[in-house]
Amino acid sequence: MIGLAIAAVVILYVIFIYNGLVKARQVKEEAWSGIDVQLKRRADLIPNLIETVKGYAAHEKGTLQEVVELRSKAQAVPAGDVAGRATAEGMLSQALGKLFALAEAYPDLKANQNFAELQQSLEEIESEVQMARRYYNGAARDLNVKVESFPSNFIAGPFGFAKAAYFEITNEADRAVPVVKF
C-alpha cells in the first residue's frame, strides 16, 4: 500500500512538472506570436513610408532600396529562427534610421502630413515591438529555468523540451551609445 502511494505521488509530481513545462512553452510561443504581429505591422507600414519618401528624395534611391531589400529579407526568415529574425530586424531598424535621417535633409518631406503620420505610426510600432521583445524574453527565460532546473530537467529532456533562444541584438553597432553633439 505504501509503495502504491509513493508511486502515485511520484506520478502526480511528474504530471505537475510536465504541465508546468507545457505552460511555459505555450507562453513563450504566444510571446513570439506577439513579436511576429508587431514586426508584420511594421513591415506593412514600410511600403507606404517608402512611397512617401520617393516623391521627395528621388536621388536617394540607394537608401530606399536598402530598406525594401532588408524588409524582404526579414520577412523571409523562417518562423522558428529567433536569432535569424533578430539579426534581420536589427539590420532593418538601422536602415529605417537612415531613412528618417534622410528626412532631415528634406524640410518639405519632414513637414509632409503623410510622412509625419507614418513616422508616428512606426514609432508606436517600434515601442510595441520593444515591449513584445521584453515579454518574449521573459517567457523564454521562464521556460529555460524550468528546462534546466532540478528536478524538472529530468522530465524536460525525455519529453523534448528545449531551451528557447532569446530575441537579442546581435549587431554590436546597435548596442553602442549614440553620440550627441551640439
Automatic annotation (TrEMBL):
Membrane topology annotation: Single-pass membrane protein
- Which keywords fit this entry according to its UniProt record? Coiled coil, Membrane, Transmembrane, Transmembrane helix
Q: Which residues form a coiled coil?
A: 108-135
Q: Which GO terms describe its cellular component?
A: membrane
UniProt cross-references to SUPFAM superfamilies, sorted A to Z: LemA-like
Where found, per UniProt? Answer: Membrane
Q: Which family does it belong to?
A: Belongs to the LemA family.
> What is the name of this protein?
LemA protein
Which organism is the protein's source?
Answer: Rhizobium giardinii
